[in-house]
Write a structure and sequence with these properties.
With 193 residues, the protein is of the alpha+beta class. It contains 6 helices and 7 strands, in the order αααββββββαβαα. The chain has one domain. Helix content is 32%, strand content 25%. A hairpin with a 3-residue loop joins strand 3 and strand 4. Helix 3 (46-59) packs antiparallel against helix 4.
Amino acid sequence: MTPSTEELIAIARHYWRADDLYDSRTEPSPEFERFEALWNEKLKELDRWRALLNQLRRALPECTVGDYVAASVNGCFGALVYPLREEVLQRTQLSWTVVGYLSILAPVYTVHCVRREFVGTHLKNSQVFLEPIPLELQGIADVIAQRIEEDYGATALPLEVAQTPVSLYVHFMKPPQTTLFHALFSSEPGNIP
């Protein structure tokens, strides 16, 4: 069962500050110390996460599956699934990635897409699609969601809850732009390898 919006906000406040007082200090905030301690515990479960990634590789042999664990940066484990790259207009390429994030802070996950446009090897544009998932990628998204639900018992975070504004500083994301998505998963969802 998905925690309520109020419970998720309380969880986020436990790990992120409502001010930026520690940005100029050398010592970490109490919230960040809790965040790092939680990551240290969750990293002990890395083999379990890697087993899930191997299941995704078997279920999606036509795709490349990558691991995106940015401990002390993101509040989640991440699975990156790269379908075949589609060539468009001469030297411009569009690249889609289906991203599954499992929060370490709460028993929730999200699956979204990132579309990146390259000119040669230069990234020209990156756009995040939280919903709806493009139809041609929905099957991949469903496989990721099913694996996370079955292996971790997490529930999908509804978009309207994910977009709830929170007055918290999450790395470079500042109020009023910060949402529960940023606090529970990533402050830069379009910044993926």
